[in-house]
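cache lookup: miss for this entity combination. No prior model stored, computing from scratch. Input as submitted by user K.M.:
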Amino acid sequence: MTSSERAGSFDHYVQQYAAQMDEPWADMLYQLLFAQLGQVLTPTMRSALTVGCGLGTTDRFLAEQGLAVTGTDIAPAMVEFSARQAAEAGLAITYRVQDAMTARFDQPFDLIVCHNVLEYVDLPEFVIANLATSLRSDGLLSLVLHNPTAKVLKAAVFNQDPERALALLDQREFHYELMNKSARAYTLKEAVNWLHLCGLEVVEHFGVRTLYDLIPNQPKYDPAWHQQALKMELELSKRSPFQEIAMFHHLIARKKG
Ligand SMILES: C[S@@+](CC[C@H](N)C(=O)[O-])C[C@H]1O[C@@H](n2cnc3c(N)ncnc32)[C@H](O)[C@@H]1O
């Protein structure tokens, strides 16, 4: 499959994806991710690359923190949307259409962000190896991955569907309905192993939405409840066993010097 064939299905779902951004669970996701990124950003960091930038939400956060951001995505429609949003926000972010499998850059970056992208590529470990070549020594990679364990929990608790929970136990493939895309979830162990093989050392592991996805949706639209849940999630994101069952794993890995 070529890059433009791979981009195809992502290209068609920009508006649907953008509409989801108004949901409280999207808000919770980005608030948690930004708080976690905020913990690892340092004043010496100057440049950031985002791979599979989607709608550019994280790009704008990083640019607001003073970083020179380059946003990339395989789907031209995502890049166009993100560039428009950045311009409207008055943020100078560089955008390029690029496949994470083959992307090459002239200068190494202080930070590379790859959030919820490896699920859709054929060779995730190859993407990490490729990204590692664009990271400066001691630079950080922020990697977010779907957690297969959380999918079993969600089926059993939130959906109250024990049959589906059992079926998901040994199933890594899932369907990302928002973009009508088949995807694959990886275990924490696999991700840590790839990072290690690519010369990156895991320095932080955060859980993202540890218990939130197990709670019925009804209270999630109440802003006061949302704030309480955010406080709880921030606390649980660094604690075992909550971080291990979170909907997403957020790993911060440092490139060995
Ligand atoms: C679920 S979205 C995540 C967007 C963004 N990282 C975020 O967290 O808001 C996945 C994105 O990865 C992009 N993508 C998928 N395969 C890619 C590849 N091989 N190279 C670059 N981007 C890719 C898609 O076009 C889509 O925008």
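stored under new cache key. The chain has a mean pLDDT of 95.
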